[in-house]
Amino acid sequence: MKVLTLLSIIMIFLLALLAVFSYFYFLPHQKPIFGSETKYILVRKGDSPNAIAEKLDEIGAISSKADFVFFAKLLGKSAHLKLGRYAIKPYALFGHILSIISRKESTPFNVTIPEGFTMGQISNLLEGTLDMDMSQFRDVVTDRHLLDSLKIPGNDLEGYLAPSTYNLYYDESPRRVIAKMVAHFYQSLPDSFEVKAGRL
Q1: pLDDT at 195 over 60
Q2: Closest CA to 72 of 50, 89, 54
């Protein structure tokens, strides 16, 4: 009889625990200030779960910073929250928010490089938008091996970083970003330009 009573108490406790977990994890807990439009947060290098919770709380995506940090730890995701820009939709489930950040389901920036921008101005724009390391950017645009592979006689890629709007991710490497711009430059050339640079 005592065993049955103990099992009943354990079962009730587990069901209550499951109910509390489901309430917080599988239901949206946004504040009224969130509104009806998608909002974004930026998880930067060095951001702790507490810092991420603060950003979510500021836009009204969660009702409790402590709950976010607690569930991140409980589910073993605290050490797996990734850098990036994340879209938080209205009525986003608590669990979904944790999932997209831990699985790096990030959203790119639409970065516009205006016509006539110099390499220095492009560097500043990328640093301001993507936190790109300017020294790494300079290393890539002056990489002699890269310049030779593209048959560029100058000392850098000045003039080869095509103005356009690019979809760029927050932690995308300078080399990858620059490769997109140079590729777009060649693709924009008329077919008569050395048969479009040997068809790239």
Answers
A1: no
A2: 50
